Amino acid sequence: MTACIIGIGLIGGSLGLALKTCQFADIVIGVDSNPAHAKTSVDLGLVDEVLPEEEAIQVADLIVLASPVDTLLDMLPRILDVVKDHQTVIDLGSTKELLIQRVADHPNRARYVAAHPMAGTEYSGPSAAVEGLYNGKICVLVDTEDSATDALQIAQDMFSAIGMKLTEMGSNEHDLHCAYVSHISHIAGFGLALTVLEKEKNEARIFELASSGFSSTARLAKSSADTWVPIFRQNRDHVLDVLDEHIEQLSRFRSLLIKKDFDTFYKRIEAANEIKRIID
pLDDT (tens digit, 9 = 90+) per residue, 224-243? Predict the structure, then answer.
């Protein structure tokens, strides 16, 4: 099988490594609009070669779209315009509803499988690609009833081959839950970083005193705006809903501090500890 990955950053580059390691694809071709990224991806062995998009699509059996979600809105219809019945197109975007709506009536819609591998780091670009990034992580397959059986099977086989666990959701359900458990975490990380940078002007003190707790919470603030602004744009309504709730929770803590009501503060922390039942 020949696989083509369009967008060879952290996600696409790590996928290229994984496909080569597990030998799911005989040849992995990269496509990237950034010449420096294209060269780096070959130098690092993330892909076997880099070709222009049109050439890569012509020779690929499997076409994986790993570009920012706003870019996908034009890219996916363009690629579905030219794919053949033996080809499968998979996107790896973090939002799904708007993208799927964009191609709902496309004659080649069945050749497309919407997927979201729940994996990543705060870094970007091909040099951030990680061996084993996907191993043991969850991949959400979205609106699978609209994909052809053989295309869906290829997607399932690929994600299983790179060590992922599979689940399925509808597109609206996916975007809603991602807002609750992923997108709000990034906004909180950005907000925390801005708060500390505003209040603590001594950068050396931040470095010296940053404990593992601060580092882990602020880690997401290192994430690329090029990646996350399109995600917030497409999932705006769901993110606003959960952001309002987050602000309300912070306001309650603030009110308790003002009132010096540390008994209730204690109880609210204990209530938050219930998250341990769900995640370690």
Answer: 999 999 999 999 999 999 99
